[in-house]
Amino acid sequence: MTSVTLTTTVDIAELSRVYRDVHAADLHLVDHKDPTVEQRLAWTVDAPGFTATVAHVDGKLAGAVLGCPLPTETLWWRDLADADPAVAREWAGRTFAICEAFVLPEHRRQRLGVPLILDLLTSRPEERVTMAVAETNTRVWRALGALGFAHVGDLVPFPGWRPHRMLVCPLPLASRR
Fold it and tell me: For 10-28, b where at least 16 C-beta lie within 10 A, e where not — what string?
């Protein structure tokens, strides 16, 4: 039995365990160590407007998508390369950022990722949504492209991380189910 729940409260320890299972092959990379996943999850959970969708399969956490609205003075777009400067301008209500998204490998073929994203974004009041995806994660950025996300530039989110593609999509996404 699969359930997807929209929530404003999450268990960071439980999410961290699933995150580490999802990224087991890449935990040696700086992307997954500095800052730690616990730090990144806490920053997201503590952000004003934090919201998440979590998926449980047979009562066990199988995946999650977490995000928050970007503040007007955000660092989200810092060092964005090859992009229209208008992309990085923020105002209240402009952008919702997906900060973390992951699904356990054994549940990926069950199409949990798309419902998690759609359930999170369907009722968002912002004009657009953004997500940074490692440039090597072609499976995810192609799936997001099918939902209408466009590549607007590249950046390195934290020192030493792999380059990430910055993706943006107009909201609402309700019609894309």
Answer: bebeebbebbeebeeeeee
Confidence band of 175 (pLDDT split at 50, 70, 90)? low
| Structural domain that includes position 113 | 2-176
Sheet holding 150-155, edge to edge: 2-7, 51-57, 60-69, 95-103, 128-134, 164-170, 150-155
Query: What is the rounded radius of gyration, in angstroms, for the C-alpha atoms of the chain?
Result: 15
Alpha carbons 22 and 27: distance in angstroms, whole number: 10
pLDDT in tens, 123-160: 899 999 999 999 988 888 888 999 999 999 999 988 88
Contact 88, 154 (CB under 8 A): no
Q: What is the pTM of this model?
A: 0.93
Name beta bridge partners: 98. Answer: 67, 131
Return the CATH number at 124. Answer: 3.40.630.30
How far is residue 91's CA from residue 102's CA, in Å, rounded to a whole number?
28
**How many structural domains is the chain composed of?**
1
